[in-house]
Design a protein that fits this description.
alpha/beta; four-stranded mixed beta sheet; 8 strands; about 10% strand
C-alpha cells in the first residue's frame, strides 16, 4: 500500500525468497514483561498538525522529539526479540532491534521501524480483541502475524497470502513509520484470515483496500483515546505522514474515508473504488458509534466470499447488523450503503 500500488494478484504472486521454515512462528518461551519502547503517536503529522514535516532522508531531526511517545511492547513471548502473541517481526535491513534499546531508537534507525511494526500490529489485534473477537465472537487473525521490514526494496507495502505475511517497503517516509500504513496492511491479513484468498475480484479487492483504510483510522483513533495522545489532523485522512513524500497539496492524505464517491463513480482501480466502500463504513460508524459499527463490520466479513461484490457484501453487513443489534442498526447500515448507490440494498 503506497503511491505505487500493485494489483493484488501481482502481490500474491510476488517471489518470496525466505524459506518457509524461517516464517514458522517461533517456539514460545516464558512470557516476558512489557518492554518500554519509543514510537510515533500514530504518526507525527497527526500528533503535531504540522503539514510541513518532511522525510529529509530519514533524518532524526526532521521530526521533533515531542512527536514520539514511550509505550509498552505487550504480549512479548520471552524469546528476546520482537516476537509475541500477536506479532513477530523480522528484518534484513539493519540489525534486529534489541529490546533493551527499544526506548532509544529514532526514525534514523532501521530498528525504529521494527519496533513500530510490532507495536501497531499488536495494538490492532488488541483492538479487535476489545471488540470481542476471539472471545464472544470468532477470532479475526488472532495469531502471531509475521512481518518483514524493507524486504520489498521499494516504496510499497503489501500483504501476501502465500505466506500470510506483511512486508513493509522503504523510500520517502519508510512505510512502517506510519501506524496507519502498518494497520492498513494488517487489515488485509484480517480479511485473509476470515476468508482465505479474499480479494479475487475487482470489487472484493476494493473492499479489501477500503477495510484496510478504515481499520487504520479506527485503531489510530482508539489508541489516541487509550493513551491520551493528541490528534491535530482530520480523522478521515489516511496515512498523513507516509503521504508527505508523494502529495503536494495539504492536508497530506494517501486516501480518505469520507469522500462523496458513489457506485456510479467506479473507475476500475481497487484503491480508488475502495473509497466508495470506506465511506459506507465510516457512515455506519457515525450512525452507530465506533464499537457497535466495528463489531458489525468485522463480524459480517466472515460471511463474504473471496470474490464478493459490493452488493453481496453490503447485504451480508446489513443482515449481520439486524442479527446483532436489531432493526435500528439494520436501517442505519442499509442507509449507509444506499447513500453510496450500491445496488440491491
Amino acid at each position: 500500500m503506497s503511491r505505487r500500488r500493485l494489483p493484488r494478484a501481482t502481490l500474491a504472486a510476488a517471489t518470496l525468497t525466505v524459506a518457509l521454515a524461517t516464517l514458522a512462528s517461533p517456539a514460545l518461551a516464558a512470557p516476558a514483561k512489557d518492554q518500554a519502547a519509543r514510537i510515533f503517536m500514530v504518526n507525527p503529522v497527526q500528533s503535531s498538525g504540522d503539514q510541513s514535516l518532511t522525510d529529509a532522508k530519514d533524518s532524526a531531526t526532521a521530526v521533533p522529539d515531542a512527536q514520539y511517545a514511550t509505550a509498552a511492547l505487550r504480549n512479548l513471548d520471552g524469546s528476546g526479540g520482537l516476537s509475541g502473541k500477536w506479532a513477530y517481526v523480522r528484518s534484513e535491513t539493519g540489525a534486529a532491534a534489541k529490546l533493551a534499546d527499544a526506548g532509544t531508537y529514532t526514525r534514523q534507525d532501521d530498528q525504529f521501524e521494527q519496533v513500530m511494526a510490532y507495536f501497531w500490529v499488536n495494538e490492532a489485534q488488541e483492538y479487535l480483541q476489545s471488540l470481542g473477537f476471539g472471545s464472544e465472537l470468532p477470532g479475526a487473525n488472532d495469531r502471531a502475524q509475521p512481518v518483514r521490514i524493507n524486504q520489498w526494496g521499494a516504496d510499497n507495502s503489501f500483504f501476501t497470502d502465500k505466506k500470510a505475511e506483511i512486508r513493509f517497503g522503504k523510500g520517502g517516509v519508510d512505510d512502517a513509520e506510519d501506524a496507519e500504513v502498518v494497520v492498513h496492511e494488517y487489515g488485509h491479513a484480517v480479511h485473509n484470515a476470515q476468508v482465505p484468498g479474499f480479494g479475487t475480484s475487482l470489487e472484493a479487492g476494493s473492499i479489501g483496500e477500503a477495510f484496510g483504510d478504515y481499520l487504520a483510522v479506527e485503531v489510530g483513533a482508539a489508541a489516541d483515546a487509550r493513551y491520551g495522545w493528541p490528534r491535530r489532523t482530520d480523522l478521515a485522512c489516511v496515512a498523513d505522514w507516509d503521504s508527505v513524500s508523494y502529495t503536494s497539496s495539504t492536508p497530506h492524505c494517501l486516501r480518505r474515508v469520507d469522500t462523496d464517491k458513489t457506485y456510479a463513480d467506479r473507475v476500475g482501480e481497487v484503491h480508488a473504488d475502495g473509497e466508495i466502500w470506506s465511506r459506507g463504513l465510516y457512515d455506519i460508524r457515525r450512525a452507530l458509534g465506533a464499537r457497535t459499527a466495528d463489531r458489525i463490520i468485522v463480524n459480517a466479513q466472515f460471511d463474504f466470499a473471496p470474490d464478493t461484490s459490493f452488493e453481496a457484501a453490503a447485504k451480508a453487513t446489513i443482515a449481520k447488523a439486524k442479527e446483532m443489534y436489531g432493526a435500528g442498526a439494520e436501517a442505519a447500515v442499509r442507509k449507509a450503503f444506499a447513500d453510496r448507490g450500491i445496488p440491491g440494498v
